[in-house]
TrEMBL record:
Superkingdom of source: Bacteria
Cofactor: Mg(2+)
Organism: Nocardioides cremeus
SUPFAM superfamilies linked to this entry: Inorganic pyrophosphatase (SSF50324)
KW Magnesium (keyword) present: yes
Protein name: inorganic diphosphatase
InterPro entries reported for this sequence: Pyrophosphatase, Pyrophosphatase_sf
């Protein structure tokens, strides 16, 4: 993206640029520093790894003051530091301790395996339940309660994305 105006239009179109911090299947949690370095943060407690690549949206702000988080649904993991253009299909609204957080659910724009995914309703109900279970449990050994408050459809998720433009 060349300008903030270009990025704002991208967001209004329901698209965003995501930087991967954590590959699909990993239980290691990494964080990107302000200069782009990837640092090991901690290992997730519990038995489950991330159900997709997990990272943040460039040029956005989430409710917790950090960049807006995004879970990228794809069949094969990438690696920390990868940038990808994604299409928003929905979001999960969480209560993480005392903080309300939204996790965008996105698919890579150039992944033809995801061409049929346009909204959360296009995902199998059992997979949505798995995402609920993951978000509820991913901090289970940290004494930080997590509750899934709501599933947001594509238009609601785009509203969150546009509201968080940084």
């Amino acid at each position: 993206m060349s300008t903030d105006q270009d990025r704002d239009q991208l967001h209004r179109d329901g698209r965003c640029d995501v930087v991967v911090e954590i590959p699909r299947g990993s239980r290691n949690k990494y964080e990107a520093s302000e200069n782009g370095e990837i640092w090991f943060d901690r290992r997730l407690g519990g038995p489950a790894g991330f159900p997709g690549d997990y990272g943040y949206v460039i040029g956005s702000a989430g409710e917790d003051g950090d960049a807006l988080d995004a879970l990228v649904l794809l069949e094969e993991a990438t690696f920390p530091g990868v940038h990808m253009r994604c299409r928003v299909i929905g979001a999960f609204s969480l209560q993480v301790g005392d903080i309300a957080e939204t996790k965008l659910i996105v698919v890579p724009e150039t992944d033809h395996h995801a061409d049929h995914l346009h909204d959360l309703g296009d995902l199998p109900p059992a997979f949505l339940d798995e995402l609920d279970a993951f978000f509820t449990a991913y901090r289970m050994l940290e004494d930080v309660p997590v509750d899934v408050r709501d599933r947001l459809d594509r238009s609601q998720a785009i509203e969150v994305l546009v509201a968080g433009e940084g």
